[in-house]
Design a protein that fits this description.
The chain has 6 helices and 9 strands. It is of the alpha/beta class and 178 residues long. Belongs to the purine/pyrimidine phosphoribosyltransferase family.
Length: 178
């Protein structure tokens, strides 16, 4: 399936989670077997070009795409978890959200110093979560030069913030607005 055909599988939910927001709902994409498989095919090809030796996915939807890409390429998967979910000593980073704050944590034993790791999430909007994930991986010693997303919301500027941090963003497709 082409990126245009895949984009058509994304459901837009108006006024969620707040009035004026057009929420891009990927559940309709991942529920479509051929569409989900084709999405992973496209993303795995981009991932292969990154030279990464492992894939890190941001909880929760980054797990869906990141783990599938890692499996497709025979690479390890590094989960970036919400606070308190890992049973071992962790590194953590707090970051701002539009309506509050959040924390990501990582088991640092999953990362080797200097190891190139690809960051994956379903969507890049303002870039806050992706930048936090990259910084956390870098604190653990990883090299984070590339990030992949299914959707980019370019009007919110997140991809530009990643580029400014030395990370090349790639998205399967974008949606105008937010």
């Amino acid at each position: 399936m082409t990126p245009g055909e895949l984009k058509a599988l994304i459901r837009t939910v108006p006024d969620f989670p707040a009035p004026g927001i057009a929420f891009r709902d990927i559940t309709t994409l991942i529920a479509h077997g051929p569409g989900f498989a084709a999405t992973i095919d496209h993303m795995a090809e981009a991932a292969r070009l990154s030279g990464a030796v492992a894939v890190a996915g941001i909880e929760a939807r980054g797990f869906l795409f990141g783990a599938a890409i890692a499996a497709r390429l025979g690479l390890g998967f590094v989960p970036l978890r919400k606070a308190g979910k890992l049973p071992v000593a962790t590194l953590g980073i707090d970051y701002a959200l539009e309506y509050g704050s959040a924390r990501l944590e990582l088991d640092p034993t999953l990362v080797d110093p200097g190891e190139p790791i690809l960051l994956v999430d379903d969507l890049i909007a303002t870039g806050g979560t992706a930048l936090a994930g990259a910084e956390l991986l870098r604190q653990a010693g990883a090299r984070v030069d590339h990030a992949l997303f299914v959707i980019d919301l370019p009007d919110l500027g997140g991809a530009g913030k990643l580029r400014a941090a030395g990370i090349a963003p790639w998205a399967l497709f974008d949606f105008a607005g937010h």
